């Protein structure tokens, strides 16, 4: 949407972003000079506030930040319009214990995380206006930050996926392997139902999940390419979405691949999954509840073309139009759009 605008970020790895962003546009913080920073970025959390506050944005009339934590804290001139596209309220604010556990931290980390909570709550007052990626996140922003937000749903990259007919003998999980993703529920459910499970993704919880999967029909693929994810989804019986997410693109990616989703009926999935049309919900955060959904699942009830059409309502073109309208309104009014 802003192809000439510079991109400010704490850390930049062109091997990860590929050709999405011209490297000449990228401005990095001093953290980039730390040799291990790109591999150990999770543990640099105490340094990110200062990194984003260090950027000189005094030349700009409009700043658009995209963040789940740090970028909303950038410093701008009073007359600059700062629109923050919010992916979620920082997890160390609304899910403190889960945040510590998710990164393998103990209660001894509280003295480090507590100042980040205070910084985050103060930083949330800086943007001119918030735009949230979902109603779920907008409600969280109002509750924890006291800030209203218009909702512009995050887009799914429709062109990456082609609608398939399934045909595979497996259920699929595509996820980072972190405790709050609840991949353990998918493993337990597939054990109870006696079905094959394929897990695409990596993360610090992999070792414990592999132990939990011992003796089951579960296969861990580790990190896979975008092309392989598309192929896995198109051939899966269904995609399992066992965690409570802020929003979550995986259900829409599955639908873009012509496949239904079995999702936990909480959080952002309520905004992207249509029961009986694009997938089904299971209601309890337990392997047994998901197993019942697997046992009742009938792939013949779901039309791949209809699933694809649903995903297309979340396309990048729709996103760009809605986001542009919201930004334009904020520029005119100087506050959150109605």
Give the neighbour order of strands across the main sheet.
9-8-7-10-11-12
Element-by-element helix/strand order: EHEHEEHHHEHEEHEHEHEHEHEHHH
**How would you characterize the largest beta sheet?**
6 strands, parallel
CATH fold-level assignment of the largest domain? Rossmann fold
When the domains are counted, the total is 2
Average pLDDT figure: 92
- Radius of gyration, in Å, reads 21 Å
The helix/strand class is alpha/beta
Shape: globular
Low-confidence stretches: none
Q: What is the CA-CA span between the terminal residues?
A: 22 Å
Helicity, as a percent range:
25-40%
Q: State the helix count.
A: 14
Query: Which class of the largest domain in CATH terms?
Result: Alpha Beta
Total strand segments: 12
Percent of residues in beta strands: 15-25%
Compile the SSE list and pairings.
Elements: E1 7-9, H1 14-17, E2 26-28, H2 48-53, E3 62-67, E4 81-86, H3 91-94, H4 96-102, H5 110-123, E5 129-132, H6 135-145, E6 149-151, E7 170-174, H7 183-193, E8 196-200, H8 206-212, E9 218-222, H9 226-235, E10 238-241, H10 250-256, E11 261-264, H11 269-272, E12 279-282, H12 287-296, H13 304-312, H14 316-333
Helix pairs in contact: 7-12, 10-13
């Amino acid at each position: 949407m802003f192809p000439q605008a510079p991109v400010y970020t704490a850390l930049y790895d062109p091997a990860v972003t590929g050709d999405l962003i011209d490297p000449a546009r990228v401005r990095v913080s001093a953290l980039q000079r730390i040799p291990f920073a790109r591999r150990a970025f999770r543990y640099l959390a105490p340094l990110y506030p200062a990194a984003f506050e260090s950027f000189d944005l005094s030349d700009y009339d409009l700043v658009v930040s995209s963040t789940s934590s740090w970028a909303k804290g950038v410093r701008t001139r009073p007359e600059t319009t700062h629109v923050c596209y919010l992916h979620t309220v920082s997890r160390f604010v609304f899910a403190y214990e889960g945040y510590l556990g998710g990164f393998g931290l103990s209660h001894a980390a509280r003295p480090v995380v507590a100042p980040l909570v205070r910084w985050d709550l103060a930083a949330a007052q800086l943007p001119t206006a918030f735009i949230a990626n979902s109603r779920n996140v907008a409600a969280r922003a109002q509750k924890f930050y006291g800030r209203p937000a218009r909702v512009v749903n995050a887009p799914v990259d429709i062109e990456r996926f082609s609608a398939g007919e399934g045909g595979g003998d497996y259920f699929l999980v595509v996820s980072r392997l972190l405790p709050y993703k609840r991949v353990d529920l998918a493993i337990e459910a597939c054990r109870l139902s006696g079905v094959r499970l394929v897990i695409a993704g990596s993360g610090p919880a992999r070792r414990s999940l592999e132990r939990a999967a011992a003796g089951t029909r579960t296969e861990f693929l580790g990190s896979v390419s975008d092309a392989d994810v598309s192929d896995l989804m198109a051939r899966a019986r269904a995609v399992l979405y066992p965690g409570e997410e802020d929003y979550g693109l995986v259900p829409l990616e599955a639908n873009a691949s012509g496949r239904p989703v079995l999702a936990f009926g909480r959080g952002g999935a309520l905004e992207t999954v249509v029961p009986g049309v694009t997938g089904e919900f299971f209601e309890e955060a337990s392997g047994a509840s998901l197993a019942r959904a697997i046992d009742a699942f009938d792939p013949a009830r779901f039309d791949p073309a209809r699933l694809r059409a649903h995903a297309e309502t979340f396309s990048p073109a729709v996103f760009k139009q809605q986001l542009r309208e919201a930004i334009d309104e904020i520029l005119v009014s100087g506050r959150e759009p109605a």
